[in-house]
Description:
Layout: E1 3-7, E2 10-13, E3 18-25, H1 29-32, E4 36-42, E5 49-54, E6 60-62, E7 70-75, E8 80-85, E9 94-102, E10 105-108, E11 112-117
Amino acid sequence: QVQPVESGGGLVQAGGSLRLSCAVSRVSRSIFSVFAMGWYRQAPGNQREFVAQITSGSSTNFADFVKGRFTISRDNAKNTVYLQMNSLKPEDTAVYYCKAEYAGVTAWGQGTQVTVSS
């Protein structure tokens, strides 16, 4: 079963940067390469919301509130997707989740906490 595992969260001051990683286990590199990979986040009391996505062809899409600050990339040789977060704001504080999706199969990671202090 596909298993995404996030890492890289932590506490950072406003204006700082973090890079999140999501490693997908239990799949071959060839299978991982066809997955669309996404990042979502959920702050306390809020619904989970879309942050960014990268397709199998490395096309990217971002939520408006992170455009120009976050980038997403993937390394198919490592079965890993990254979310580079720059110019972080306190409102970016949330649990960040990774999602792997292909042909109707969807798998979520357990999340990693990002806290941005003012």
